[in-house]
């Protein structure tokens, strides 16, 4: 097990550097630099450009971020900065270190994604079990249909409707900002509802399969009730693969909260990140990508270990994927 | 246990679905907010810079609304009234203004002195302030303060600036010439730097400190309580303010991608919301909302500027006029923008500010347009090079213009809707000989006298994007080379760039710019109007519309005076606003 | 929203697809098509997809107006006889734009799926078949691609390559192909665990023949299911990209962009949203039913 862990961590380091290198090279090859964009945006201040001041800024930024050095120097500058958490300041927020920007926004995006996955998982498990227990009846079809409707409507549309119903008509939930627990309800629901469908169908099929397995017949034969079958055996078997489904969902959602964040005016990492890409804010792009990559790798590791904990077969035969 | 929940679950699901599907009916409006509290969306992008009034940033405008107070501020009647200055006197030649300051305190209790004023203004003009904080310097051209330009250029020391503290309660400002409108000019958005800062505090602040509310010491009626970058800021009354503070709390929301301000307004989260053109019909169908709808003009003209190209077909005025007269600006404003725009006739002159510009306006005349194009040698658009039209993001107006040109003139128009970063790179490039092109551009206009060219260098650097198409292909290549060379000394680089451009303009463009310089030197109103009028008549660019911003202002809000010089129509002075309930 | 629909097939602890018992069972003898036919939802799904695909293919012929032609006298019109789905801000016919939007969405959806399939088959088959070090290295490579933030990758790719349909197709495929590789690989491994490959080897068949004759045909099931879930996933990703302004270059219609424009105008002109959303939803539903149907016919354990 320890050997496995060691191999995984080594691999994570390799993956981390690979992702960072590719991001960096891609980022540098994209047209436009922060300075040209910045100067164009501050068109009003172009009178200040007259007097060469922004050019001074340009020179100082160029020096500070080694923008004229060979690519490997620049690359190492970012990566070593990230690893030692001396990440320097963002281009776009020159007075704010990227670290504090990320500190402020990452927890929000992460909690949104996490809550969304949690809520959708609970709903999915419930719906899936209901459908599986009443397989092929109208309950089955209608629950699955309703769940599926969620998938076919994008989250930003769901968000707008939820805002309309609960924020405007019923006026019971806030729709702007993130100043307390009630502010989380609508954004989380907008993110959760569209993903309920696939997980609930998955849960349904998985439970059905377990219910039809031969060993279940044994349980019934031994005198076990439906509840016993369900909680004692079927769910355990279904939950295991379920975890591997939930992991990627969480990962995908973390960056996918951009639209929801902008609709609800939430200061999350998604919008900061998208803006960084559009502004060619190299420090912010690199730092948020590296952070994201790290989180994904850690999560994969965690899921795999969890897998081993839950499934004794894997523990015995080794962790080969 | 599960049996009981099943039908309830399904029923709930169906109800929600039904509710969603019938949601297109009337929309309710609710407006609940704490008494005296005012919440608005700040639609300029939060560029993350601190609240330092000496740096150019969009938060500089917020500072000017009530966090920092200068000599005068906007009064309830739309004219300047005493602020920190309780009275003033003007010298006989109109060049020296002496202001007497009242007893006022900063938010930390320190006294506001004339020395603080001098210090604050000087540091804003000083060229070293901005690079130290990795920011951009404020614009100083709009105020005719003695030696300001020279200090900024570094050719004269800070002490020569025409701003002096005679004693701790008297401030003397010397101008370069008589300016009877000086007080009005102090209310311009770009004048937000003319405020005092607490010298002993500010000298010890780093750039990052300016983003932390408790470190920002200000003298206005409001002070910063909290600030979340890119998200929101909260202002509360300054306990040491000399006068009455009208609002108990001010909340700014910074918006990004897809603003949903209509919903926010209806839910009561905002008392002032700027609408998209697509929201207008919904608001007009709702009587409660309609009574709170306002149409506020802005001062930037959405225009099409000529791109530089090896092909100089667009140097012929007739060709450009043809393109201008083929655009039906009224249809764009009424139909495409749903009324959120008014036709514009000149790049720098919004019609509401400069009504005389209509004398020089080119009309919408498709027949004439076709004739002009034929006269220039391209009947029916045959033989005309491909026209490229660059814009950023999804732009229905650009799409409309593309259609109008293709339908009326018969030319082939390629629309390029690009991502912002790519747009900013592409609009500066030189097109090949098979293409001519335009890019979408705009600028915030000021009083016309303030926008005249004072000298070739001065005007060119600030307005390159309004004239680059007229540099000769050869001259422009040199310009681009210098522009992209980051290792060159900035002052030298700018001088070179100006030379390349100015020397390569065709004669008519040089004549037009000379007219502007003469207008500035003589101060003649006639010449000023002629200068801007000539740009319109010769279609040096194609202005399309001035935004006419639909806005919802809650009926419980009084005293909101929108600043028409800012596209997001911020209020001039927060302390004139009251919120009743 | 850019969340990939999860392809949830590779994690199963079942026996391989063909056991001796099932070979002999009567269920195995009935053709897959008959089993498919009995699943009404699957048939419905197939019909929907077929109709929409035909509409998309014949969009140029079926459209009553050119999709970019503006008619300024008829902006923001409600649905009428002249314009079944109304008109937009430039007076362009919405029915035409929806048809073309669907056409472009399907092009990206199917096209990206083809790319993903190719890459996935190649990588997955090789990794699964070779096993050992090759497998390990390739799978680590797959894990690296997974760890990459797909949103950033798409943004950068599109900004770099421009917004034509082809580049968007590539951007979508570039982030989703790894799922397919995993599916293929797990199937190949399963097949390897049966005796068939050994037997074929023993008889002297070459690697390529084995892959062609034994591995691929027997893996078809889960791959088909993955494809039918992958296409709507690609369409959703592409719609999400348009929302960020990275969709197909206007004025070419793009379903995602039509949806976002509709959402912005939903309170004033609801018909602008209903049309594209319903079509998009139908397409997704159709594929989902289809995919479910495929999964059921390849799943020998459900009660039928």
Keywords:
heterotrimer; A: mainly alpha; MetI-like fold; 2 domains; 15 helices; 0% strand; flat; B: 581 residues; 8-stranded mixed β-sheet; 32% helix; disordered N terminus
Q: Please count the beta strands of chain B (DSSP E, at least 2 residues each).
A: 22
Pick out the low-confidence regions of chain C.
1-29
Task: Please state the CA-atom Rg of chain C, rounded to the nearest Å.
Answer: 22 Å
Number of E strands of chain C? 0
- Number of contiguous helices of chain B: 20
Biggest beta sheet attributes of chain B? 8 strands, mixed
Rg over CA atoms of chain B: 26 Å
Ends apart, CA distance between termini of chain C: 36 Å
Oligomer class: heterotrimer
Q: Biggest interface, which chains?
A: A-B, 79 and 84 residues
Shape of chain B: globular
Beta-strand share of residues of chain C = under 5%
Average pLDDT reading of chain C:
79
* Helix content bin of chain C: over 70%
Total helical segments of chain C: 13
Shape of chain C: elongated
| Ends apart, CA distance between termini of chain B | 49 Å
């Amino acid at each position: 097990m320890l050997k496995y862990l060691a191999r995984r961590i080594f691999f994570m380091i390799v993956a981390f550097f690979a992702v960072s290198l590719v991001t960096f090279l891609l980022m540098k090859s994209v047209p436009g630099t922060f300075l040209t964009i910045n100067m164009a945006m501050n068109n009003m201040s172009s009178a200040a450009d007259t007097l060469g001041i922004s050019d001074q800024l340009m020179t100082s930024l160029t020096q500070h971020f080694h923008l004229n050095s060979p690519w490997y120097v620049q690359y190492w500058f970012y990566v070593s900065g990230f690893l030692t958490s001396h990440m320097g300041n963002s281009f776009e927020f020159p007075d704010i270190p990227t670290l504090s920007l990320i500190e402020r926004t990452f927890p929000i995006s992460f909690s949104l994604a996490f809550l969304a996955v949690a809520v959708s998982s609970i709903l999915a498990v419930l719906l899936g079990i209901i459908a599986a227990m009443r397989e092929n009846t109208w309950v089955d079809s209608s629950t699955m249909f309703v769940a599926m409707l969620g998938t076919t409507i994008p989250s930003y549309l769901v968000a707008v409707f939820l805002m309309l119903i609960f924020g405007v008509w019923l006026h019971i939930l806030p729709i702007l900002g993130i100043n307390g627990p009630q502010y989380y309800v609508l954004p989380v629901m907008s993110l959760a509802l569209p993903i309920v469908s696939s997980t609930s169908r998955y849960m349904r099929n998985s439970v059905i399969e377990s219910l039809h397995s031969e060993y279940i017949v044994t349980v019934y034969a031994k005198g076990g009730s439906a509840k016993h079958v369900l909680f004692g055996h079927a769910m355990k078997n279904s939950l295991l693969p379920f975890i591997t489904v939930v992991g990627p969902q969480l990962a995908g959602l973390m960056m996918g909260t951009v639209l929801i964040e902008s609709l609800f005016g939430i200061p999350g990492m998604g919008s900061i990140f998208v803006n960084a890409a559009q502004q060619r804010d190299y420090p912010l792009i690199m730092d948020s990508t590296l952070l994201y990559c790290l989180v994904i790798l850690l999560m994969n590791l965690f899921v795999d270990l969890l897998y081993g904990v839950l499934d004794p077969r894997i523990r015995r035969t080794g962790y080969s994927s | 246990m599960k049996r009981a929940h099943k039908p309830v679950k399904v029923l709930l699901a169906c109800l929600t679905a039904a509710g969603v599907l019938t949601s297109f009916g009337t929309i309710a409006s609710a407006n609940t907010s704490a008494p005296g509290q005012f919440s608005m969306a700040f639609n300029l992008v939060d560029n993350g810079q601190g609240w330092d009034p000496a740096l150019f940033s969009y938060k500089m405008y917020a500072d000017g609304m009530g966090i920092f107070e200068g000599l005068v501020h906007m009064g309830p009647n739309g004219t300047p009234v005493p602020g920190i200055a309780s009275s003033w006197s003007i010298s006989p030649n109109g060049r020296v203004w002496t202001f007497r300051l009242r007893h006022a305190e900063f938010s930390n209790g320190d006294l506001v002195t004339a020395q603080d004023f001098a210090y604050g203004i000087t540091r804003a003009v000083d060229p070293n302030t901005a690079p130290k904080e990795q920011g951009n310097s404020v614009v100083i051209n709009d105020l005719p303060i003695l030696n300001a330009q020279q200090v900024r250029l570094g050719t004269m020391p800070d002490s020569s600036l025409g701003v002096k503290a005679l004693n701790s309660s008297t401030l003397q400002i010397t101008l370069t010439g008589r300016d009877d409108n000086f007080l009005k000019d102090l209310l311009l958005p770009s004048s937000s730097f003319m405020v005092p800062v607490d010298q002993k505090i500010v000298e010890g602040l780093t750039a990052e400190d300016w983003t932390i509310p408790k470190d920002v010491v200000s003298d206005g009626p409001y002070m910063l309580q909290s600030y979340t970058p890119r998200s929101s800021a909260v202002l509360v009354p300054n306990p040491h303010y000399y006068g009455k503070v009208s609002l108990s709390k001010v909340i700014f929301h910074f918006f990004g991608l897809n603003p949903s301000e209509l919903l926010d307004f209806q839910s009561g989260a905002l008392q002032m919301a700027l609408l998209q053109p697509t929201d207008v019909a919904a608001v007009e169908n709702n009587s409660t909302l309609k009574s709170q709808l306002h149409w506020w003009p802005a001062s930037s003209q959405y225009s099409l500027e000529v791109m530089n190209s090896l092909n100089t077909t667009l140097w012929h005025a007739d060709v450009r006029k043809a393109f201008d007269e083929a655009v039906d600006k009224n249809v764009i404003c009424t139909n495409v923008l749903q009324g959120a725009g008014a036709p514009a006739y000149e790049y720098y002159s919004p019609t509401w500010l400069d009504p005389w510009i209509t004398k020089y306006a080119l009309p919408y005349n498709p027949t004439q347009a076709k004739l002009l194009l034929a006269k220039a040698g391209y009947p029916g658009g045959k033989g005309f090079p491909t026209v490229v039209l660059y814009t950023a993001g999804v732009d229905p107006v650009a799409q409309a213009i593309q259609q109008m040109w293709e339908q009326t003139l018969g030319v082939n128009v390629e629309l390029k809707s690009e991502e912002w970063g790519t747009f900013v790179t592409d609009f500066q490039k030189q097109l090949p000989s098979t293409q001519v092109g335009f890019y979408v551009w705009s600028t915030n206009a000021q009083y016309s006298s303030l926008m005249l060219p004072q000298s070739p260098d001065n005007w060119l650097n600030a307005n390159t994007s309004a004239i680059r198409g007229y540099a000769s292909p050869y001259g422009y290549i040199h310009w681009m080379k210098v522009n992209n060379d980051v290792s060159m000394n900035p002052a030298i680089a700018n001088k070179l760039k100006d030379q390349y451009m100015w020397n390569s303009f065709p004669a008519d463009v040089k004549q037009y710019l000379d007219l502007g310089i003469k207008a500035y030197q003589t101060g003649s109103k006639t010449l000023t109007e002629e200068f801007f009028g000539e740009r319109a008549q010769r279609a040096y660019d194609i202005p399309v519309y001035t935004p006419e911003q639909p806005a919802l202002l809650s009926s419980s809000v009084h005293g909101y005076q929108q600043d028409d010089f800012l596209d997001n129509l911020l209020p001039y002075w927060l302390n004139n606003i009251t919120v009743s309930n | 929203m850019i969340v990939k629909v999860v392809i949830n097939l590779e994690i199963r602890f079942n026996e391989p697809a063909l056991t001796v018992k099932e070979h002999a069972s009567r269920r195995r003898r009935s053709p897959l098509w008959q089993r498919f036919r009995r699943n009404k939802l699957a048939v419905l799904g197939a019909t929907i997809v077929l109709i929409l695909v035909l509409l998309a293919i014949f969009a140029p012929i079926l459209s009553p107006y050119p999709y970019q032609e503006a008619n300024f006298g008829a902006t923001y019109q409600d649905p009428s006889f002249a314009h079944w789905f109304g008109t937009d801000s430039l007076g362009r016919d919405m029915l035409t734009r929806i048809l073309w939007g669907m056409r472009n969405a399907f092009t990206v959806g199917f096209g990206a799926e083809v790319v993903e399939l190719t890459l996935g088959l190649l990588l997955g088959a090789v990794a699964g078949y070779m096993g050992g070090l090759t497998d390990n290295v390739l799978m680590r490579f797959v894990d690296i691609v997974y760890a990459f933030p797909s949103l950033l990758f798409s943004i950068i790719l599109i900004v770099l390559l421009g917004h034509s349909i082809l580049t968007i197709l590539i951007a979508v495929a570039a982030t989703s192909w790894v799922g397919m590789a995993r599916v293929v690989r797990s199937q190949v491994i399963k097949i390897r665990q049966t005796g068939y490959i050994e037997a074929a080897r023993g008889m002297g068949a070459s690697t390529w023949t084995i892959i062609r004759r034994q591995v691929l045909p027997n893996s078809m099931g889960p791959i088909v299911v993955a494809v039918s879930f992958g296409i709507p996933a690609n369409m959703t990703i592409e719609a999400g990209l348009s929302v960020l302004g990275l969709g197909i270059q206007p004025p070419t219609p793009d379903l995602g962009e039509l949806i976002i424009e509709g959402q912005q105008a939903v309170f004033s002109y609801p018909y602008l949203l209903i049309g594209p959303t319903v079509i998009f939803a139908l397409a997704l539903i159709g594929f989902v039913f289809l995919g479910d149907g495929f999964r059921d016919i390849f799943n020998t354990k459900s009660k039928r």
